[in-house]
Amino acid sequence: MGDSTSRDGAVQLTHDQCVRAIGCVVAAATGDALGAPYEFQGPIPASDDVEMTGGGILGWGRGEWTDDTAMSIVLLEAADTGAGDHDLCVESTLDQVAREWYSWAAGTPDIGNLTSLVVSGAADAAQAEGRTVPRARDFRAAARAMHERMPQNAGNGSLMRTHVVALPYLTSSDERLEEAVREVCRLTHIGEDVEEACVLWTFAVRHAIMTGALDVRVALPRLAPERAALWARRIDEAEAAPPVAFGRNGWVVHAFQAAWSAIHRSCPEIAAGSFPEGKFAQRAAMTAALEGAVRAGYDTDTVACIAGGLLGAALGPKSVQPEWRRSLFGWPGYEVGELTALVSRILETSEGPAGGADAAGAVFRTA
Q1: Is residue 171 part of a domain?
Q2: Would residue 151 count as lying in a domain?
């Protein structure tokens, strides 16, 4: 469905696009919570069920999301309240992100190893200058230092949150979206693999929200030719193998491949380039994709979160099982209603009053 245009010429979002944007965030949080109790464990055999149980090594509640969604919420809140027309490239907005990530990191039981090191390095830099709270420049400097120390440590901690970067830029230029993706990525992760993975996934999320179609290759032309060819091969590999084949899924490349493999294998229609029709068929596809991501083992919450963000952007929130949606909760004391309202506010303020709030109010009125 195409965009609508207001009287003043500003591009607005349709109701369906707003609903799909909500689906992106809700399905990502669902994948996160579904995978949480299975994190750090090996692959799950087909004979065992994957359920929204809670528990696991870190003792999550049933339906509780982890660091993937928590860090994404900070970005959404910064986009909602930040300066510069809700632009995540504005330094004061990035400072808010840095401040809130630092505050969250002090109390979370779950944070990626590289992200944790960056947060610690940023805090040390701030204290060296007599400040108690780090700024965005402290995070960038710490991320750069970690990359120089461990250039091969391309973790998935930026890819897990990149889906929400698309939301303030749904009708923006490709250049502006890519700038935002790279700015947010570089707060904690630097390097070709991590930045390119985030660009490809975020552009695919935006494409899904705006068109209702899946195309993880849509941003390949934005990469240098040799890098585009490398990522094209990686995507082909993902489509040819199950998620479990990408077992080093703490690495951003395998996390990308495992998530896309899970989506691609979730139903025959998606593998053929189309979608299943009807709510129940779409719900079955979403369930298969999230379960497939979790069955890969190891970084289960992150891979399922990444997969959910993209598939939810195409199918909307009602593709998530109602009992899973209703059980969602987590830091900072949100449930699915607060998560949906936050997305709606960004759509309203960033893109104009085209139905974001109406979408938030109506999207869950029927299962």
Answers
A1: yes
A2: yes
